[in-house]
């Protein structure tokens, strides 16, 4: 029967017994039979060992919180939290110095093996720095980890001189239940190790097998910085005092993330001050107790991957692309005139060096993200704002800056993955993408879901935080809400360290798409709203992109005019940039036409100073901007598209969404209709649903007519039948002639850009991805 640790509500696995029969893999990757039983055959309860009257009785509340440890950073590691998280009531004046289970004892400063649960039984090695109990009265030890070479993620900083059985001592800690302790480990210098085992191998039958390791360096695994080589026996003797010295050594010799930690704590809501923190090593800021240790993040043998239901997971090989030959463009050719430079800078795909007018939003996203990475906690940040308000650009910039901090060794490493609702063919693929980002394995969405569930529900020491940007979230809504629910739910799981940045166009997407019960759980969701840009802001944005373009080819009045026009409708920077870019194109064409410079401007033309003539003829003025706006809005196709019925617009929107999702221009009619219904349902003004219901009746007659013309089968397209016919007859879409049912193939016969342009500012439809 599984025993319980003293006071622990959690059943502790019948560890000692079960582990004995199992094969264990040690951190040194050496499989072993756990033949010797340090923890004994009997399942005794764990008990504290006290050192009496070490500390005077505390007059205050003895129940500390997780941050208390950080408070007293000058104290030795084992005493930094001046008392354990919670002392048992009868022991207020006693300090816990160790724990025992039957005849097995461990004390502060002991090197221990901790067993892993879950994917195979692996053992971890750590030094006990402190004992305590958590809010569930679970008896736990604060363990400073050793790490194997495989865990160093930065391939460039991996050492090539590591030895078999070598471990690095790391400045990273976790709380673990005593039940996960699986015996003592022996750490030694390489000299001692080779003196004892000249072949470098420990005989399998030896009691030391799988428990004995070499340590000659410390390493911050996240920044991959190493200490100088040391002799283990000179610096550590399994004693409590040595723990402090070891931490000091790691602190000074591995470049940890002190700078930013300190900064972050300055603004910490718990009221920490820099002075309190000092030069504390990278101890976790909040107590993160793990209940059961599970396996580390390591590349695994594909054949061993199984789901929690023990189904085998087929791991697909990563896709390998053969790069195409690269054509190197001559910068002189590309940017041979100011017009070309301006066009290129104003292009929406250009990555601006700064994001003016998004300083507050940037700071807010940055602070939340950095805090979550530093704390090692999960977080879910919901970012909303109408199209073109810089949501994606800001998030990417924040991630780039955080990444720069990682490179500078100022921040812990993190994984970043971007999942774009428009780029996945099916929302469930998000699971596969996330799993691939975490582990590097490509698996099917259903297997990925199983694996993610298990991953986030089990603690893994030193799990690297993962930041997921879920862009175009609206597109990831599934019928049963599962994808969105999971991505909102996982960050809240204690061990996930998952940070989700959900980006959508509407503020209330979670409320609208998740059931009341689920959305009510999102009260704590951090929400950041990106307002539409004002005309002043749009002006700044455009001007900043024109900085450095020679010749002042764009009149400031023209910029102001374009900005005002756009701000009045949408505050969409993308639209403002598009208009200005088109205006530059028009001005450039004017310049060429006026034959200021005959023919295409050539390299030499640009170089011999003929630009000035060209510029005189082609400056972007208010009139040019007006032409750009008119041109975009007045051609016959645009007018036709704008005058379409709502259901036709919706159908086109759905066709576009499908095309973007699949990357294939041809879609199945039934899927497009489903998409259209889904979009209609999500539309903020529910009038769209009502409209479609009304439209359905008149549509029915038309689609009957259509079916009679094109198919002998009864029409299945009822809701949008009329739209399909209208658009087909107008040459906007093409539909496989003989397939009037849902399996017919449909495709756009006009440019996608035309549709986008027509619907961009359409109040009825613009929220559906334009
Ligand atoms: N403050 C800014 N400074 C410079 N360029 C900006 C700024 N805000 C947005 N842009 C530019 O506008 C374009 C649209 O921005 P972005 O894609 O970030 O918007 P979004 O809010 O994510 O839009 P959507 O909801 O349509 O995805 C990009 O080219 C981006 O570089």
UniProtKB/TrEMBL annotation:
<dbReference type="GO" id="GO:0046872">
    <property type="term" value="F:metal ion binding"/>
</dbReference>
<keyword id="KW-0539">Nucleus</keyword>
<dbReference type="InterPro" id="IPR048867">
    <property type="entry name" value="WHD_ORC1"/>
</dbReference>
<keyword id="KW-0479">Metal-binding</keyword>
<keyword id="KW-0235">DNA replication</keyword>
<dbReference type="GO" id="GO:0000785">
    <property type="term" value="C:chromatin"/>
</dbReference>
<keyword id="KW-0460">Magnesium</keyword>
<keyword id="KW-0547">Nucleotide-binding</keyword>
<feature type="region of interest" description="Disordered">
    <location>
        <begin position="253"/>
        <end position="306"/>
    </location>
</feature>
<dbReference type="Pfam" id="PF21312">
    <property type="entry name" value="WHD_ORC1"/>
</dbReference>
<dbReference type="Pfam" id="PF22606">
    <property type="entry name" value="Cdc6-ORC-like_ATPase_lid"/>
</dbReference>
<comment type="subunit">
    <text>ORC is composed of six subunits.</text>
</comment>
<dbReference type="GO" id="GO:0016887">
    <property type="term" value="F:ATP hydrolysis activity"/>
</dbReference>
<dbReference type="GO" id="GO:0003682">
    <property type="term" value="F:chromatin binding"/>
</dbReference>
<protein>
    <recommendedName>
        <fullName>Origin recognition complex subunit 1</fullName>
    </recommendedName>
</protein>
<dbReference type="GO" id="GO:0033314">
    <property type="term" value="P:mitotic DNA replication checkpoint signaling"/>
</dbReference>
<dbReference type="InterPro" id="IPR050311">
    <property type="entry name" value="ORC1/CDC6"/>
</dbReference>
<dbReference type="InterPro" id="IPR001025">
    <property type="entry name" value="BAH_dom"/>
</dbReference>
<dbReference type="GO" id="GO:0033260">
    <property type="term" value="P:nuclear DNA replication"/>
</dbReference>
<dbReference type="InterPro" id="IPR003593">
    <property type="entry name" value="AAA+_ATPase"/>
</dbReference>
<comment type="similarity">
    <text>Belongs to the ORC1 family.</text>
</comment>
<dbReference type="GO" id="GO:0006270">
    <property type="term" value="P:DNA replication initiation"/>
</dbReference>
<dbReference type="InterPro" id="IPR054425">
    <property type="entry name" value="Cdc6_ORC1-like_ATPase_lid"/>
</dbReference>
<dbReference type="Pfam" id="PF01426">
    <property type="entry name" value="BAH"/>
</dbReference>
<dbReference type="InterPro" id="IPR003959">
    <property type="entry name" value="ATPase_AAA_core"/>
</dbReference>
<dbReference type="InterPro" id="IPR043151">
    <property type="entry name" value="BAH_sf"/>
</dbReference>
<dbReference type="GO" id="GO:0003688">
    <property type="term" value="F:DNA replication origin binding"/>
</dbReference>
<feature type="region of interest" description="Disordered">
    <location>
        <begin position="1"/>
        <end position="85"/>
    </location>
</feature>
<dbReference type="GO" id="GO:0005664">
    <property type="term" value="C:nuclear origin of replication recognition complex"/>
</dbReference>
<dbReference type="InterPro" id="IPR027417">
    <property type="entry name" value="P-loop_NTPase"/>
</dbReference>
<comment type="function">
    <text>Component of the origin recognition complex (ORC) that binds origins of replication. DNA-binding is ATP-dependent, however specific DNA sequences that define origins of replication have not been identified so far. ORC is required to assemble the pre-replication complex necessary to initiate DNA replication.</text>
</comment>
<dbReference type="Pfam" id="PF00004">
    <property type="entry name" value="AAA"/>
</dbReference>
<feature type="domain" description="BAH">
    <location>
        <begin position="104"/>
        <end position="230"/>
    </location>
</feature>
<keyword id="KW-0067">ATP-binding</keyword>
<dbReference type="GO" id="GO:0005524">
    <property type="term" value="F:ATP binding"/>
</dbReference>
<keyword id="KW-0238">DNA-binding</keyword>
């Amino acid at each position: 029967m599984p025993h319980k640790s003293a006071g622990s509500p959690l059943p502790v696995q019948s560890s000692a017994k079960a582990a004995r029969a199992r094969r264990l893999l040690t951190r040194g990757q050496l499989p072993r039979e756990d033949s010797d039983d340090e923890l004994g055959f009997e399942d005794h309860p764990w008990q504290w060992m006290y050192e009496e009257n070490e500390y005077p009785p505390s007059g205050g509340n003895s129940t500390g919180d997780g941050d208390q440890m950080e408070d007293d950073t000058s104290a030795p590691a084992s005493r930094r939290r001046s008392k354990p998280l919670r002392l048992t009531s009868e022991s207020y004046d006693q300090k816990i110095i160790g724990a025992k289970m039957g005849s097995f004892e461990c004390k502060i400063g002991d090197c221990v093996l901790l067993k892993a649960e879950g994917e195979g039984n692996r053992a971890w090695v750590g030094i006990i720095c402190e004992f305590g109990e958590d809010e569930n009265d679970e008896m736990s030890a604060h363990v400073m980890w050793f790490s194997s070479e495989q865990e160093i993620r930065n391939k460039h900083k991996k050492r090539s001189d590591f030895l078999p059985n070598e471990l690095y001592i790391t400045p990273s800690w976790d709380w673990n239940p005593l039940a996960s302790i699986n015996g003592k480990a022996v750490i030694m210098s390489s000299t001692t190790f080779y003196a004892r085992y000249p072949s470098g191998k420990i005989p399998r039958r030896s009691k030391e097998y799988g428990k004995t390791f070499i340590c000659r360096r410390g390493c911050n695994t996240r920044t991959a910085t190493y200490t100088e080589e040391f002799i283990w026996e000179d610096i550590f003797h399994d004693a409590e005092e040595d723990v402090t010295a070891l931490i000091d050594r790691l602190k000074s010799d591995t470049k940890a993330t002190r700078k930013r930690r300190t900064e972050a704590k300055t603004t910490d809501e718990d009221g920490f001050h820099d002075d309190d923190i000092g030069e504390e090593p990278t101890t976790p800021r909040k107590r993160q107790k793990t209940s059961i240790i599970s396996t580390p993040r390591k590349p695994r043998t594909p054949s061993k991957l199984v789901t929690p239901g023990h189904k085998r997971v087929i791991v697909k090989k990563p896709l390998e692309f053969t790069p195409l030959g690269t054509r190197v463009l001559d910068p002189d050719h590309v940017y041979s005139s100011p017009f070309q430079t301006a066009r290129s800078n104003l292009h929406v795909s250009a990555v601006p060096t700064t994001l003016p007018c998004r300083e507050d939003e940037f700071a807010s996203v940055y602070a939340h993200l950095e805090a979550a990475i530093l704390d090692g906690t999960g977080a879910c940040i919901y970012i909303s704002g109408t199209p073109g308000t810089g949501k994606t650009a800001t998030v990417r910039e924040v991630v780039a800056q955080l990444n720069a901090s990682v490179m500078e060794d100022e921040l812990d490493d993190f994984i970043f993955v971007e999942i774009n609702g428009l780029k996945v063919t099916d929302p469930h693929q998000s699971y596969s993408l996330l799993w691939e980002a975490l582990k590097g394995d490509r698996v099917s969405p259903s297997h990925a879901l199983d694996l993610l569930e298990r991953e986030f529900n089990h603690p893994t020491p030193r799990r690297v935080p993962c930041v997921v940007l879920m862009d175009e979230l609206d597109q990831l809504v599934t019928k049963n809400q599962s994808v969105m629910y999971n991505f909102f739910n996982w960050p809240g799981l204690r061990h996930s360290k998952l940070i989700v940045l959900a980006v959508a166009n509407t503020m209330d997407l979670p409320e609208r798409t998740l059931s009341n019960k689920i959305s009510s759980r999102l009260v704590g969701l951090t929400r950041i709203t990106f307002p539409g840009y004002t005309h002043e802001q749009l002006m700044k944005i455009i001007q900043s992109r024109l900085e450095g373009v020679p010749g002042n080819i764009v009149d400031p009045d023209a910029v102001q005019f374009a900005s005002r026009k756009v701000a009045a409708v949408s505050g969409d920077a993308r639209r403002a940039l598009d208009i200005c870019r088109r205006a530059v194109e028009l001005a450039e064409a004017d310049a060429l036409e006026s034959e200021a410079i005959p023919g295409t401007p050539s390299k030499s033309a640009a170089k011999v100073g003929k630009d000035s003539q060209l510029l005189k003829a082609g400056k972007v003025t208010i009139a040019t901007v007006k032409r750009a706006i008119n041109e975009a809005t007045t051609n016959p196709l645009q007018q036709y598209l704008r005058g379409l019925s709502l259901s036709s617009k919706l159908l086109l929107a759905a066709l576009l969404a499908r095309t973007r999702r699949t990357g294939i221009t041809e879609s199945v009619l039934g899927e497009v209709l489903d998409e259209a219904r889904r979009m209609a349902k999500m539309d903020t003004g529910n009038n769209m649903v009502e409209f479609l219901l009304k439209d359905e009746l008149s549509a029915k007659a038309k689609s009957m007519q259509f079916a009679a013309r094109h198919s002998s089968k009864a029409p299945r397209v009822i809701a949008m039948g009329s739209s399909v016919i209208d658009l087909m007859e107008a040459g906007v879409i093409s539909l496989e002639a003989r397939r009037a049912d849902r399996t017919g193939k449909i495709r756009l016969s006009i440019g996608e850009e035309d549709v986008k342009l027509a619907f961009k500012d359409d109040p009825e439809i613009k929220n559906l991805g334009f």
